[in-house]
Amino acid sequence: MIQYRKILELHFNHVSQRTISTSVGSSRNTVSDVIKQAEKLGIDSLTDEMSNRWLEEFLFPEKLAIEKGFFPPDWETVHKELQKKNVTLKLLHMEYDQRARDGGKVPYAYRTFAENYGKYAKKYKATMPIRRKPGEVLEIDWAGSTLSITDRGNGEQLTVYIFVATFPYSQYSYVEGFLDMKSANWLTGHIHAFEYFGGVPETLVPDNLKTGVSKALRGEPILNEAYRELADYYQTVIVPGRVRSPKDYPEVFIILKKGSHS
Of 51, 62, 74, 255, which sits 20 to 30 A from 107 (CA to CA)? Predict the structure, then answer.
């Protein structure tokens, strides 16, 4: 197994490639390829998140696809094509699907294609800005601040939790209050937002919440079944923000911060 992290650790400490090769037990060509790919993708230091597996997936995603028997997408090309006018992820998947079948290869289904691109885009965001397009992504969250209303029957003060959905390109938002943050209201908020906007975005990016994510493994959130079914019904894809990573949903975060002062 190639020790991607060890190779880069030694490289960043100015150890020669010959010495690195001897230390990790990989050929000098392999060491050189890892270093060149890291430089190409803008990695000049390592964080705790960058495990050996993370680096393998990030640096050489096509290799993993081939190992699993799938036709490997060129994620860098997908990423650049998405920045062009009138190009959508669904269109790029159709083209990828056709290329795979023409070559007698197995293509990824659209959902897997979109989810894998979402992972790639989040990792790449640190080194290459992602240009949003109108209607492409909807970022969703519960506001940190709450409101309150008075029950006319008994005078009791009831807490109101604020659901916010925002298009990052335009900052166009839908806001609704609920008496709790349970799954039913989380889903209702989505439905009402779609009705308000008059359409459904290509991708939903929710905060990593218990109402939408049943289990939040590091980098691999697991969606609860009701939320997944909602996405299937509306033919959209959910790419949860990472745990404690507000950069994954900055527009909602900014709006909520502004709202907290009003």
Answer: 51
